[in-house]
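[job 4471] stage=fold_predict status=RUNNING
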Amino acid sequence: MAAVTAMLEGLRDLVPMTAENVAGRFAAQEWTPGGKSRDGVETSWRKDGIRGWIQKFRCGAVRVSCAVWIRDVDESGYFDDLDAVYEQGEQALATFLPEIENSPLAGHLVETELTATDEDGFIAARKGTLDGRVLTAGVIQQDTDLPVMVVVTLEEPAPAWG
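[job 4471] inference complete, writing structure tokens
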């Protein structure tokens, strides 16, 4: 998980935070490309058992996500005890959060309230702003037959119109 906090620290002062610049930081920190190129930019990365992704949206927003814990579905394609898996995810999140709180990022992080959208998308989460960017750490499962994951995202909002 130290690779994630190091990546977040490396992205904190990255201006502008573009997909190309973020890919350069992943490469500089010796993450391994995953072979998922989009618009000529590597968007999938791995290091120390952690998966990282770069997403660029049409509106100009850029999101960097890292999965620090993944629990895949069982052989049936589902979980026998989904509540237990959610609880494991919440424990993994509770283990990871102090890594952010005790890192150099803490002095720049301002905790914010979760929105209704956040509450719908996450099983459990914490959210803040990091020098104008949105940092969210939480437990997600995007569909019943997909893994439960603890993810950390850093999003550069879309440029303002003007």
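[job 4471] summary: Helices lie at 2-12, 19-28, 82-101, 116-121.
[job 4471] exit 0
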